[in-house]
Design brief:
f41 fragment of flagellin, N-terminal domain, mainly alpha, 71% helix, 288 residues, 7 helices, rod-shaped
C-alpha cells in the first residue's frame, strides 16, 4: 500500500489528539484526586462508587441516630441519679424523724425539707431536653406532671441504630415518678405534720420500695447503654471500612498518576518533535 504524505499527517494528528486526551485525563486526576470525573470515564468504578457512597451515608446516619439515643439515655440516667439521691435523702429524714427523742416541732421542720424534696422530684420527672419531655414516652410535648395531675402516656421511644435494629431510648417513668410515689411522700408529710411516729416508721418501707424502682430502672437503662456502645463501635468500624473501600475505588494513586503524567509529557514532546520533521516538507520545498 502506498503511504502518502497526507496519510502520515493524518496519523500523526490523530495520535497527537490521543496524546492530548491522555494528558488531560492525567491532569484531571492529579487536580481532583479522583480516577474518574464522569460515569462515562469508567462505568464500573462509577457503579461501585455509588454503592460504597450509599453505605457510607447509611452508616453515618445510624451514627447520628446513636448520638440521639446517647442524648436520651445520658440525660435519663443523670436524672435518675438525682432522683435516687433525693429519695435516699427522704429515707434519711424518715429514719431521723422516727427517732422517739424528736418532738413535734422538729418533725415539722423535717416536713418542710420533705416538701421541697417532693417538688424537686416533680422537677426531675418533668426533665426537658432539646424541647422534649424525656419521661413522658412518645408524648414528648406534654409535661408528665402538671398542676398535681399525672399524665404519663408511656410508650417506648424506639430509634433505629442499625439495619433492622431499634433500641428503646427512653425510660418508663410511670413506675418511678407515678402517683404512687407522690402519694407515699404525701403520707409521710401528713405523718410528720401530725407527729405520728408509727406512720413515719412505715414510710421508710414505702420509700425503700420507690428507691428500688429507680434502681431497677437504672439497671435496665444501663444494660441498653452497654448494648448501644457495642453497636456504636461496630458502626464506627463499618464506617472506616466503607470509607476505605470508597477511597480505594475512586481515589488515585498520586505516585502512579504523576509518573504516568511525566511519561506521557515526554512521549508527547517526542511525538511533536518527530512530527515537525515529517510534516515540514511540502511540494514547494521540493521545487526550491
Amino acid at each position: 500500500m502506498r503511504i502518502t504524505q497526507g496519510m502520515m499527517s493524518d496519523n500523526m494528528l490523530r495520535n497527537l489528539s490521543n496524546s492530548y486526551t491522555k494528558l488531560d485525563t492525567y491532569m484531571n486526576q492529579v487536580s481532583t484526586g479522583k480516577k474518574i470525573n464522569r460515569p462515562s470515564d469508567d462505568p464500573v468504578i462509577a457503579m461501585k462508587g455509588m454503592n460504597y457512597r450509599s453505605q457510607v451515608i447509611e452508616v453515618e446516619q445510624y451514627i447520628r441516630n446513636t448520638n440521639e439515643v446517647h442524648n436520651w439515655m445520658d440525660n435519663s440516667d443523670s436524672s435518675l441519679d438525682k432522683a435516687t439521691s433525693s429519695m435516699q435523702k427522704l429515707r434519711e429524714l424518715a429514719i431521723q424523724a422516727s427517732n422517739s427523742t424528736y418532738g413535734s416541732e422538729e418533725r415539722k421542720n423535717i416536713k418542710e425539707e420533705v416538701v421541697q424534696l417532693k417538688e424537686h422530684l416533680i422537677d426531675i420527672a418533668n426533665t426537658k431536653v432539646n424541647g422534649k419531655y424525656i419521661f413522658n414516652g412518645t408524648n414528648t410535648e406534654t409535661a408528665p406532671i402538671k398542676d398535681g395531675e399525672y399524665n404519663f402516656s408511656g410508650g417506648a421511644v424506639n430509634i433505629e441504630v442499625s439495619n433492622g435494629i431499634k433500641i428503646q431510648a427512653n425510660v418508663d417513668a410511670s413506675s418511678i415518678f407515678g402517683k404512687e410515689l407522690f402519694d407515699d411522700i404525701d403520707k409521710f408529710i401528713v405523718a410528720l405534720d401530725s407527729d405520728d411516729q408509727e406512720a413515719i416508721q412505715s414510710s421508710i418501707d414505702s420509700i425503700d420500695d420507690n428507691i428500688n424502682n429507680v434502681i431497677n430502672a437504672r439497671a435496665s437503662l444501663g444494660a441498653r447503654m452497654n448494648r448501644l456502645d457495642l453497636i456504636e463501635n461496630r458502626l464506627n468500624e463499618q464506617n472506616i471500612i466503607a470509607t476505605k473501600m470508597m477511597s480505594e475505588n475512586e481515589d488515585v494513586d498520586y505516585e502512579k498518576v504523576i509518573t504516568d503524567l511525566i511519561t506521557q509529557e515526554s512521549l508527547h514532546r517526542a511525538a511533536l518533535a518527530a512530527g515537525s520533521r515529517i510534516i515540514q516538507p511540502s511540494l514547494i520545498d521540493f521545487l526550491r
